[in-house]
Structures are given as structure tokens and as C-alpha cells.
Amino acid sequence: MALLEIEGLSIGYGTRNGLLRAVEDVSFTLEAGGSLGLVGESGCGKTTLGMALMGLLPPNGKIMAGKILFEGQDLKESTEEQWRKIRWRKISMIFQAAMNALNPVHRVGDQIAEAISTHRPEMPEREIMERVAELYRLVGIPVERIKDYPHQYSGGMRQRAIIAMALACNPRLIIADEPTTALDVIVQDQILKEIKKLQEKLGLSIIFISHDISIVAEVCEDIGVMYAGQLVEWGPKEAVFENPVHPYTKALLASYPTLMGERERLRPIPGEPPNLVSPPPGCRFCDRCPSAGKSCKSQAPVWAQVGPRHKALCNACS
Amino acid sequence: MTGEHIVEFEGVTKIYKSKASLFSRSSEEVVALRDLTLNIRKGEIFGLVGESGSGKTTAGRLLVKLEEPTEGVIKLDGTDITKLKGGRLKEFRRNVQMIFQDPYQSLNPQVSIFEAVCEPLVIHGIGNSGNRKEMVEEMLALVGLSPPEDFLARYPHQLSGGQRQRVAIARAMILKPTMVVADEPTSMLDASISAQIFNILLDMRERFQVSILFITHSLAAARYLCDRLGVIYKGSLMELGPSGVIIAEPRHPYTQALIDALPKFGQCGSVFHYGTLLAEERRGIEDGEGKGTKEFCPFFPRCRPARAEKCANAMPRLENLSPGHAIRCFFPARPSLQVETAGSSKCYYGI
Q: Predicted ipTM?
């Protein structure tokens, strides 16, 4: 049994202009110990998906259809009470710009201790403080810094503290949403290597969400490409990079430069993603697609199997 | 008074002082830029690459006169800009424009796109009510906001980040400046949108021969966009030269560390790893008894190939390794023996 199975998940937001179909019919599985990178432009639904996996959709967000099977149980039906038992203990999250989420007037160590005591109220204080020290050693922050305040930490250290907080209760799955935005190149590289090392060492499963495929490639084994709320390509990263099938994936990869060889003009994708309040009936990428077929505009695309674990949502790709 | 260079920084130093206050007993000094000397050629796209705290943004702000240098001289087309006043200052403003990092903050939300792009024309008395609309439309089309008529009446909140940044470029270019400072114009945009913005900047340079100072944290973006680049660390230039040369043959340990750290995908197995960054910083390098009396290479605490006898006791000077390629290092790397393997040109990098 896979650790996480998403089946036909659709999520919508109620807005003044109507229902915004932010995630449409997404299905994938994540095995225990696996690492998946969810990649796509802003507005593609990847963050919404991540929030849904933690039961953290805003009040106007609603799961319209589908299942979220975690350890065999459908989380979609969970009550707030049940979510509280899952959050942080089974699934935890590193949010976007999380390092700015540390409370500036409390010591960092205390904030991590609080994360532990909130979700494990039965744990004695001494044990909690020992766990905090263990976490600091795990993520590479000097233990003497436990009593410092967030402003005394560098950006990289704050991010490590956030990772420590996410690991505090030994979750099985971590959802990291753009965890390295706002970090310098060298610090980002160190944090990514740290995440990968921890993932391997602790046997964690990880879903890494980013608009930047190069970052995701550093950490994840599998890649899922999202566009306008849909999963459009999926597979092991080597397969997707070697043989990208969906025109959007191809276009996304062409947005990145090489360092060696001829300096060729990047070929970015013209246009903008569609309005998700009234998405087009057929393929949502049709308007921007260089290889659109005649029926793409009106007929919804179906999955095409490209390789043993590699698939693309496309009628015109074979 | 015209020569080969459009911009010259000569020994430019910028020190920020914070005054003593209720919360700190003494005033503090931050040396943002230390003795910066560099030239930008006419029609060139020059990249200034560095991490936060490097001083790269300060250099840009000094060039557009949002700040004044503490020491040193900045010249635009041979003229010292630090002394400009009145009419000549206004002329300067027409010639030097800036594109900011945050497209969500740089456009006035109460002003329509037409007004935002037209405003520079009005301020500088260019055109008249008869032809300004046409000039704005032409510029919007050039930055890819097509059809331009659709955008004139819109407001910033109705545009995406990428579209807003195009408007910012249109607004900067409508005066046909000779120099544009682009301060991390894509760090807040998705990678695929960034590529669009880079190509627009290349188009602008081709069309208008405008010179561009491109400030970035990404060596990969700088290599793509720039003719020459300078790597800056804690207020000092560490390496300077043609972008192709610096990327293929970086000689400064910090440049090499930046290249190592770039996220990448594709066939990257054969990419050379320089390994010049220490896992842990060397401790105990303080400023000596008095602040600023002890000179040392700012990269020393993190530099693997450094040797304390030289690097912790003196500041190396920026010197030419070969014509056009300068480096500030006591122990520059030997030219690497790496051969450009076929695979490494199929390795793609984050921007």
C-alpha cells in the first residue's frame, strides 16, 4: 500500500465571479520514503493541493471530488479533531516564506518546543527540550543557539529551524512549499542538500512544491508537472528530463539556460494560463501549445502512457 | 566627452551609518561598497552578480542617484554625476532609468497603465497630447503587451507579475535612456516568465543600443544575458571579465562556489565540482583591536584554498589575470584542466 494515494482530486474556491476550479481531477501515488516534486507556474494549483493535504484550505476552499488516501484512510472526510492528530505527527508542512513566520518575540527553541507540546501534550518538558537539541543537531544548527531570537539567526539558519520544527514529531510525510525562496544561492544549495540528506536518513517521504524545476530536480526522484489545475505529466525525473512529452513540460524545460555550449535564445512560453473560473472545455494548454491538434480545443485530454511509470495528459502526443 | 565607456565607477565607497538610539548605545557602520572601480561599455549588458549583502543593489542605486556615494566618483558618458544639479540633473534622469525587483510594489496602484508609461514623457516634455498615446502603444507592443489598446485602461492589480514587469520596462525605455539599471528584475517571477523578461531586455538592447547594468544573484542568468560580469562579495569585486570566460574558467574561489551551488537538471553527471567552500566557517577573524584596522580578504572565513598567512592579514587587490579578466585573490585557481564534455551542454541551470 502506498503511503499517499490521491485519486481524482478536485478542489475549488468560491469567489465573487464563480467557482474557481483550482485543482482538477489530479491522481498520483507516493510510496513510503519517496520524494515527489510538484512543479508549475503560479496559479497552477500546486500550493492548493499541498494545503488540502494538511486540511488547511481557506474557508472558501472546498474539495469537490476525489480521495486523499493516507496510510489507507481517506483524509477528505476528516474532522478538525482528526486533522489535529495527523498534522505535525504524520504530515507536516514547510510553508512558503516560512522563515518569516517565526514569532520575533519568542526564542526559537521555545517555538519548536511549542510545536512539540501542542501535538504531543503528554510529553514531559525535559524530554521536549532534549528533542529540540536533537533536532538542532539533526539540521545543523549549533545547539548553543537554542535560546536565541529569530532576528539573531541568518536566513539559512531560520530555514533550518523551520525544517527542525517540521520534523519535530517524526512525521512520515513532509510537504515543502517553496522552502528556499528568498535564500541566497549558496545557502539554498546547503538547505536542499540538507533536506535530501534528512529524507534519506529518516526515511521520510517528501512532496516538494516549486515553480522552479531546477530546485526540485536536486531533491526529488519523481516529478509531477502541473498546469492550470491539472497534472499534465508525471514520472521519474530522469524519464521526464530525457523524454518530456507534454508540450508544456517541453516549454518549461526550454526556459532554463545552459552554462556551457552555444548561448541559444531561451524559448519561453508565450501567453498566460487560462482563467480557472471558466476554463476551456478541451485541453487547458491548447491556446499556448505549439503542437495543438484539431480536436484539442474541444476534447478533454486523456492520459497517454509514455513509459513504465511515465505518463502525459495529452491527446496530441504519441 | 564621449569614449568607449558609458559608466565609470572610480573608487566608489558607500558607508551606511545608523545613529545611536534607545536600543543601541553606539552608532553602527555598514560598509556596503568598498572602493568599487568598474566600467560599463556602451551598448553592453553588464552583470553584477552577488548574494544578499554583497552591495550589488547599492551600486545600482548609486548609479541612478537614489543614493550618493560616501567617497569616489561615478561618471556617465564622461561626466561626473555626483555634481549634477538643475537642468543637467534632469537630463541625467532622462538618460538613466531603473527597473526594480518587486513588480507588485513598483507601479502606483491608483494609476492606469497608460498614465504610468506616459508619465515620463510628460515630466520631460516629450511629445504632446496628440502623439503620446501612440508612443505609449508602440512601447507596450515592443515589450509584448499586445494588443496595446487592451492594456491602456487597465490598472496594475489586473496584471500578472510578469505583465507588470513588462510595464516597468516600457516605462523605463520610453525615454530612450542610454543606461538602464535592472535590479533583480526576475527574482519575484516564475522561471518561465523570467525567460520572457530576459528576452525583452535583449530585444531592447538590440533595438535601442541601451546599456544595461543587470543586477542578479544568479550566475546562470548573468551568463545568458550579459556580455561581461563582475562577481561581488561583501562590497568588493572578486572577479571581473567576459561572462563566457568567467563561467567556463572561473578563477576565484567564490565564483567557483557560486557555480557549484547552482541548482541544475538534465545530464549533469559530468559537470565539474570545484569544492572551494568550507563546510564550516573559520572562527576568530575579528576586526582587530580597532574597528576596520585589520585588513583581510572578506571571503577568507569560508574559503578552502585560502592560506591564513596571506589571506587573513591583507586585502588582495583587483588585478588582471589576462587582458579583460581581473581577479582579487592571492591564490587564484590554476586554469582548470576540465574539458567541456558533450554532456555538460545538456545540463540546465536555475535562474
A: 0.87
